[in-house]
Structure formats: C-alpha cells, structure tokens
Amino acid sequence: MDHPKITDYLITALAPIIWGSTYLVTTELLPSNSPLLASVIRALPAGLILLLIGRTLPTGIWWCRALVLGVLNIGAFFYFLFVAAYHLPGGIAALVMSFQPMLVLLLGLIVLKAPIHTNQLLACIIGAAGIAMLVLQSTIKLNMTGVLAGLAATLCMATGIVLSKHWGRPQGVSLLTLTGWQLTVGGLVLLPIALLTESLPTEITLLNGIGFSYLSLFGALVAYAIWFRGIERLPAATVSFISFGSPLTACILGFVFLNQSLSLMQSIGAIIIIIAIWLSQPKNKREPQSSLPKLDTPLSKMT
Asked: Is the pTM of this model over 0.90?
C-alpha cells in the first residue's frame, strides 16, 4: 500500500469534526427522547440516495458483510450514540468513547495482525487524559444508561473499523456504493424497532427538519464516505486516533454556540489531544539503531 499523504489525514479528519456537531444538533434541534427515530432518519435517506446513484447491490458473501458492517458502523452505533447524547453531556459522551483507540489496537492485533507500538499506547493514555481535561467538570453527575450506551457505541465503532479494514471492498464497487449499502442496512435494521418502541413526535418543527437534514446529508452521507475512504488509505489505529477530533469539536461548538467557557485546563486538554493524534501516526523514517527501544518499536521486540 502506498504511503498515506497529508491530504489523506486532513480529509479523514473532516468526518469526526462533522460528528462532533452531533451533540449540539441532537440537544438543540431534534425532538426529545427519540434516539431510534433520529438514527433511522439520519441513516436511511442518505443510504437510499447513494443506492440510487450507484445502482449496485451486494453479491455473494458481501450480503453478509454488508449486514454486519451496516449494523456495527451505522445501526447499532447510531442508536447507542444518540442514547448517550440524550443522557450525557456531549463532552462526557465523548470521554466515554475515547477508549475506542485502545479497542482498535487490540482488535487490530487479533484480526489484522498489526503490531501494537509503544507510541500508540502512549497516545491512548495522553489522548484520554486530554479528553478528560477538556470535558470533565466536578458538578457533572454521570448517568449509567448514558455511560453504558457510550461504551456500546465505542465497541461497535472499533469493531466496524477493524472489519472494514480487514474486508476492504469488493472489486468494481465504488466507495459511495459501499457507504450506501451500510447506511441502508443500518437504517432498515432500526426502522421496525423504532416503529415498535417509540411514539412518533406529534409535530416536526422547522428546526427539527433542519437538524434531521443536516445529520442525514452531512453527518451520514458526507462524513461516512470520508470516513471509509480514510479506513482504506490509513492504518486502522490511525483512523481511530483521528476520531479524537470529535470531542474537541463538540467542546469548541459548545463554546461558540452555547456560551460554554473554556478554562485554562480545558485549553491544555485540547492541545494534548492534538499531540496524541500526532504521536499515534506511524513513523516511516529510518533512525539509527539504539540499545533502547524507540517509541514506535513493537512491544513484542521489547521483551
């Protein structure tokens, strides 16, 4: 595989930046207590649009793979993400999900046979610490429903990243078509559950419509096409670390639109998150041999 370009990192980073706005849009624009409805409307229209553009359906083993990826990356992930957003402040939900890179490293070792480097472990630790400094406040009381939903969303996303990297995409199928398969599957899986378990809102306001449209077109169609492109071009662990941009964006948007002030500690946390993303990147340069292990030395060679 060719070495990734700096543009690959920058383009991929746009996806978590867009997702970081989910917390703001959910709390300010969407109807309350309708996570399944929000998930369906976010995924299904975008998926159907891409299916109409691509006009290609899965074949063979890809029916099963599209189902698995659609549930992990879209259906289950969207649902748990919205439940977490409804029950936790956006920053706390992001903090819970900061454990995702650690899961990706472990799953990548098992599925992709990708060695874990010490710089990646260090990036996990300081990234989680940075997110804690960015979002934690002593006055916040944690809601266990939200915490468990955030952990479930984290597990779904981590598994989805690794399997997407492992399976790639079928020959002759465009990235947009593969994205459409997953968005459609995720939406269709959630649709009957939403109809059975949630009552529809009595009215949809203009603001609700704007929120749903934004999440479907940008939060799903655009962001996931960018995200899957990044998974193709970058190491799985690298893509996972880039997702740290989501809580950073959530806090910045809270500062700009909700008058949430950023303390010195939060500002330092934001800088630490950026350092963690930089530290996690693979080092391609050859360096002189040393008797001490380098930060990017696989752990297996340190024992």
From this structure: no
